[in-house]
Design brief:
Order of helices and strands of chain B: EEEHEEEHHHEHEHEEHHEEEEEEEEEE
Distance between the termini of chain A: 44 Å
Number of domains of chain A: 3
Number of helices of chain A: 20
Largest interface: A-B, 19 and 28 residues
Strand order of the largest sheet of chain A: 1-2
CATH architecture of the largest domain in chain B: 3-Layer(aba) Sandwich
CATH topology of the largest domain in chain A: MetI-like fold
CATH class of the largest domain in chain B: Alpha Beta
Helix content of chain B: 10-25%
Oligomer: heterodimer
CATH superfamily of the largest domain in chain B: P-loop containing nucleotide triphosphate hydrolases
CATH superfamily of the largest domain in chain A: MetI-like
Radius of gyration of chain A: 32 Å
CATH topology of the largest domain in chain B: Rossmann fold
Structural class of chain A: mainly alpha
Shape of chain B: globular
């Protein structure tokens, strides 16, 4: 009892805890220095870019910075059903004049036009009035602007300006789910014929799910064979499994294109054995079939390796015990062997699913229009439309999705049950 | 109930894995019902292969195995109803002790109440009541071992096979488990086929021991006979300690023979020698040779002590005797012990009955 209440001292009279900390400090510093380069690398290449992506995806400061006086004045605009008061007009006019001097007024017009159609015209008119010095600053600016175009007298347009005030926006995320903020501020769905992203998300999930399923059904027997064959055969088989790893992804995908195309090897073979007519060759590429086939082949090792490493640790005497105790081979497998491989199944499925959900090159090359995934859409916005903030938003949505899947998996199976080797 | 003396029968069984080497050669072995028989032999002698053939995990290349008069070569393992205890226990790591024991009963579609009863009985047999909900990983080696034994017995099999079940335990635990398994066998009367390479284990536990070497049964007899009367030099060498002399028969009659060694002659008991001029190896247990024997013995020699090693309950003395410096003597330690010193000369005597002239090595 006394040892619990009394502080234990070393022979020198220093408290034991202090002495222990001192002794371990050096080792801790050493250990930290060893991992420091990796930590730095992770921060620079991973955490920082994710943060940057996030900032980019929600950043909407352009208008905020262009119209500081307007938004300041708008704080006093209380009755939103009527046109804003004189101060707002004056603030907007002064901000706009600054933009004209800096020759940035065009950008504002385009940005506001995205928020509400018709802005481009009326800002250009305002620009011409300012250029000709037609605006008299000594009298009411509100009346003068209202005279330029009837849209300036429409409160909707002023509300649109007000909506762009916050420096941050969720619009890109909503767009990623085929939704947008309507003029009244509520969240609405885009027209049915323009909902492309939701289809892509669903298709990505579907393809990832089935690729995982196919890899599992193909990988399980291979892994079992690998784990039970005698060494000299299992080494050979292992090389066959690993061979794809040593070949460039692009080369593998390209070889699938050669195999699967309509004049390709597989189709030629089908025609040769008379399975299909020469004029009736099935399309196996530029659709989902191609994506399934190529992705399953490419991701198969990620399923086989965790399964193999788990199966290798299962003693063959367990199956024998199951049989000797009266279980049929199936019962012995199902009740004894299979439950023991669950950690490997979990690891393999999670790995393949997460890799599949963000897959890019293969669906881009063999997927065609109906076989592309969300990552292809991200790449499209990165390279073609240059809408980086939208690409960032979708990338983050993908990342969040993966984390959610990981979380669900953890709840269902428990991550500590995963065994990668 | 009359015991069937041929409950398990190996009938001219051969086994080869590669078609070139016979691992088991022409095995002829009958095991009586309720018997505890041990297959003893060095590794690679074919004993485990015999067990696997009986369990159904290997098929005989030639010959038949019969269980209670029925040929079982074509019956798959799960239909043979033979319990088995594996070398590494092979407990199912994802099941509790209860589930492990219930497994053979569940696959036999035994009712829940009956399962509970039988599991309880089997656990009390190995004194592990109250461990039902533990996982195998939470048990010590000895406890796992006992669960494995209970699991092999819980479905009342006719035969239980044990494949070096005590190999992974430490010495003390191994000894206590030997007695425990022996007592379980005595109380329920199941037929046990036990495989081991540990001769003391075999001697303490078995009714009969089959000594395997090179795919053949060298000797099949009860423990005392095996130790006292080995029929060939392999068995003499493998079971217990043994002093050997290599020589040639110079004279032989019914129960005595004269063996000429390099520079002397000894009297021995002819076991596997028939005629003059044969080469032979004479085997003598260390405890059969006495120092300064009080009674008259027909072999009396004098030797020089080379080494004295104290072993607690006995002292081992290495002598230079009859031209060999490897002659071992075991002297029980008692208060009236002789002063034994290195390089002292002492007289040694033994009876020719105990010196068994066997096949030459």
């Amino acid at each position: 009892m006394s040892s619990e209440t009394k502080q234990i001292l070393t022979t020198d009279g220093i408290p034991l805890e202090v002495s222990l900390k001192k002794a371990e400090k050096k080792n801790k510093i050493k250990a930290f220095l060893l991992v420091a380069p990796l930590l730095l690398f992770l921060v620079i290449t991973y955490i920082f870019p994710i943060g940057d992506m996030f900032m980019r995806s929600v950043d909407d400061r352009m208008v905020t910075n262009m119209l500081p006086k307007t938004f300041k004045a708008m704080e006093k605009w209380e009755n939103l059903e009527e046109l804003p008061p004189e101060e707002v007009y004056r603030g907007f006019y002064e901000d706009y004049k600054v933009l004209v001097e800096k020759q940035e007024h065009g950008k504002l017009g385009q940005r506001l036009n995205k928020e509400k159609n018709g802005f481009n015209t009326i800002t250009k008119r305002l620009f011409r009035q300012i250029k000709r010095n037609k605006i008299d600053e000594s009298i009411s600016i509100k009346e003068q602007i209202n005279k330029i175009h009837k849209r300036w007298r429409n409160v909707e347009f002023w509300l649109a300006i007000k909506r762009t005030a916050p420096p941050y926006t969720m619009a890109k995320y909503l767009k990623g789910m085929d939704m947008y903020v309507a003029s009244d501020g509520s969240i609405a769905q885009v027209d049915e014929d323009r909902r492309i992203h939701r289809i892509l998300w669903l298709r990505t999930l579907e393809i990832a799910f089935f690729v995982t399923l196919f890899s599992f059904f193909m990988g399980y027997p291979i892994a079992h064979l690998l784990a039970t064959l005698p060494m000299k055969y299992s080494n050979l088989l292992m090389i066959c499994v690993l061979l794809p790893f040593w070949t460039s992804l692009l080369v593998r995908t390209a070889s699938w294109m050669i195999l699967l195309q309509q004049q390709g090897v597989v189709n030629d073979f089908f025609v040769m054995i008379g399975l299909v007519g020469d004029d009736n060759r099935p399309e196996m590429m530029y659709n989902k079939v191609g994506t399934y086939v190529a992705m399953t082949q490419i991701l198969l090792p990620f399923m086989v390796l965790p399964l193999y490493s788990v199966m290798k640790t299962i003693s063959p005497s367990l199956m024998r015990a199951g049989k000797s105790l009266g279980g049929t081979p199936f019962v012995a497998f199902w009740k004894v062997y299979f439950p023991l491989t669950i950690p490997g199944i979990g690891a393999g499925c999670l790995l393949v699913f997460i890799l599949a959900i963000g897959y890019y090159i293969t669906p881009a090359l063999v997927g065609g229009a109906s076989g592309t995934l969300i990552s292809n859409q991200i790449a499209f916005h990165m390279k073609t439309t240059l809408d980086w903030s939208f690409a960032s938003a979708m990338g983050l949505m993908l990342l969040t999705g993966v984390l959610v899947i990981y979380w669900i998996y953890n709840k269902l199976v428990g991550v500590d049950n995963i065994k990668l080797g | 109930m009359s015991k069937n003396p041929e409950f398990v029968k190996f009938d001219k069984v051969d086994k080869s894995y590669d078609g070139k080497v016979l691992v088991v050669k022409d095995l002829q072995l009958d095991i009586a019902e309720g018997e505890f028989i041990t297959m003893l032999g060095p590794s690679g002698s074919g004993k485990t292969t015999c067990l696997m053939m009986l369990a159904g995990f290997e098929t005989p290349t030639h010959g038949e195995i019969l269980l209670d008069g029925n040929i079982i070569s074509n019956i798959p393992p799960h239909k043979r109803g033979i319990g088995m205890v594996f070398q590494n226990y092979a407990l199912f790591p994802h099941m509790t002790v209860y589930e492990n024991l219930a497994f053979p009963l569940r696959v036999r579609k035994v009712e829940k109440d009956e399962i509970d009863k039988k599991v309880d009985k089997a656990l009390s047999m190995v004194s592990l009541n109250g461990f039902e909900t533990r996982m195998p990983a939470q048990l010590s080696g000895g406890q796992q071992q006992r669960v494995a034994v209970a699991r092999a017995l819980v479905f009342d099999p006719a035969v239980v096979l044990m494949d070096e079940p005590l190999g992974a335990l430490d010495k003390n635990l191994r000894e206590s488990m030997q007695y425990e398994i022996k007592h379980i066998h005595e109380s329920i009367g199941v037929t046990v086929v036990y495989v081991t390479h540990d001769q003391s284990e075999a001697l303490t536990m078995s009714n009969r021991i089959a000594v395997f070497n090179d795919g053949k049964v060298q000797q099949l007899s009860n423990p005392s006979e095996l130790y006292e009367k080995p029929v060939n030099s392999f068995v003499a060498e493998f079971i217990g300690e043994n002093n050997t002399f290599n020589g040639e028969i110079v004279d032989i009659d019914k129960d005595k023979c004269k063996v000429k060694l390099a520079n002397s002659e000894i009297l021995a008991n002819p076991i596997s020698v028939k005629s003059k001029g044969e080469k032979t190896t004479v085997s003598l247990r260390p405890e059969r040779a006495l120092i300064n024997p009080s009674e008259k013995m027909d072999n009396m020699f004098s030797g020089k002590i080379e080494e004295v090693i104290y072993h607690g309950d006995h002292t081992r003395v290495r002598l230079n005797l009859l031209g060999s410096s490897e002659f071992i003597l075991k002297v029980p330690n008692s208060t009236s012990n002789l002063e034994l010193k290195v390089s002292q000369d002492i007289n040694i005597g033994w009876n020719s009955v105990d010196a068994r002239a066997l096949d030459p090595k």
